[in-house]
Specification:
Elements lengths: L7 H40 L5 H37 L2 H7 L4 H39 L12 E8 L2 E9 L6 E10 L5 E12 L4 E4 L2 E4 L4 E4 L4 E3 L5 H5 L10 H13 L5 H23 L13 H27 L5 H24 L1
Helix pairs in contact: 1-2, 1-4, 2-4, 2-7, 2-8, 4-7, 6-7, 7-8, 7-9, 8-9
Length: 365
């Protein structure tokens, strides 16, 4: 197994060069994208009374982990192309091949480094990115104001009651103590058109249904609006189990937390294909870093003096970016039920692994 790698000195040299370029590219991408993102969001952040420079730095601290997680595979791809193209330009690849190393042996230190990066990326996503995502989404939902201390608070929720719809600006509490605020209940007729609208500042669980406090009704056909003196019970089909399933955000949950949410939804008969695909993608996503040295390897071989080095680098970039396009498309198809969740998460990885191997073997081995 160890014979597959070059000498110890060469392995350390290649790994050190590769990891340095990964960090440099990642830093460059994150800084540029963070500045652009902050320019677009700073107006909304500062629009909330009392927000200032401290809140801008808070936003940056929450956004940077997301950018790092999203663009780390891109950084590995670009670092692969830069590293191998530089080695090729300096005739180092020629020297290594003259010493008897195959293309796979030259790539072995890069693949090992990428595997370590993938492991760190997975742990970083689980421990840091999920928490920063949950906090940032809660802060955004509060219009960059104070974040509710109750972790059960959800914003902009809606529930179906047969053909009718119950919406609320926020949901807090759990079980029978669940409270909805900023409630609107839409009643539909047989043609599916909204026939009545009921608004209420607050709703509590009525077992079954929900009591709307100080409701105001609006009849669409007569355009008549009335304020009722007594609480109105609506949405008898909206249960507490349905409430508990609201706000399952796979990006804000760790692998085990998402698995528990999927099991709960399955027991309640809910559709879970999209969440299952996201669960598998939490594993396959970080592992995509291992593919990048293979897909970008075409940039490191061939004669540098042939004038095709730039074209080879373009081909490597095209292969890498094609993977991300196919990966996102497959994940979307899996969410719609077009693919099984496992296939949606892993098919692009396996497809481009064999594609990269084929290109490398056909051109270099």
């Amino acid at each position: 197994m160890l014979d597959f790698f070059p000498s110890r000195q060469l392995t350390i040299y290649l790994a050190k060069t590769f990891i340095t370029r990964i960090l440099a590219v990642l830093l460059m991408l994150v800084l540029v994208l963070q500045m652009l993102d902050l320019l677009s969001e700073s107006g909304d952040i500062l629009a909330y009374p009392g927000n200032g420079q401290g809140q801008l730095w808070t936003y940056v601290s929450l956004r940077i982990p997301q950018l790092m997680a999203r663009f780390l595979p891109y950084s590995v791809l670009l670092a692969t192309i830069i590293t191998l193209a530089t080695l090729n330009q300096n005739s180092e690849v020629v020297a290594m091949k003259a010493a008897g190393l195959s293309a796979h042996q030259i790539l072995a230190p890069l693949l090992l480094t990428a595997l370590v990066v993938a492991g760190i990326s997975f742990a970083f996503n689980e421990r840091v990115v999920t928490r920063s995502t949950a906090t940032l989404k809660a802060w955004t939902a509060a219009d960059y104001g104070p974040i509710p201390k109750d972790p059960s608070v959800r914003h902009n929720v809606y529930y179906t009651d047969g053909t009718n719809i119950l919406t609320a600006d926020s949901k807090s509490g759990s079980g029978a103590k669940t409270v909805l605020e900023g409630v609107t209940y839409y009643t539909r007729d047989a043609q599916g058109m909204i026939s009545r609208q009921v608004r209420s500042p607050r709703a509590t669980y009525a077992n079954p249904g929900w009591f709307l406090e100080n409701p105001t009704t609006f009849d669409v056909q007569s355009a008549d609006s009335r304020e009722l003196q007594e609480p109105l019970r609506v949405a008898r089909g909206v249960t507490l189990d349905q409430m508990a399933m609201t706000g399952v955000d796979p990006d804000a949950l760790s692998l085990t937390e998402l698995a528990d949410a999927i099991d709960t939804m399955k027991r309640s008969g809910r559709h879970t294909s999209e969440l299952e695909g996201k669960w598998w993608h939490k594993i396959s996503g970080p592992l995509s870093a291992v593919l990048m040295p293979l897909l970008g390897a075409v940039a490191g071989f061939g004669l540098a003096r042939s004038g095709q080095l730039f074209m080879r680098a373009i081909i490597g970039m095209a292969l890498g970016f094609a993977y991300f396009v196919v990966d996102n498309a497959a994940l979307a198809m899996g969410g719609f039920g077009g693919y099984p969740p496992v296939l949606a998460a892993w098919a692009p990885f396996m497809l481009f692994f064999f594609l990269g191997e084929t290109v490398l073997i056909r051109t270099e081995e």
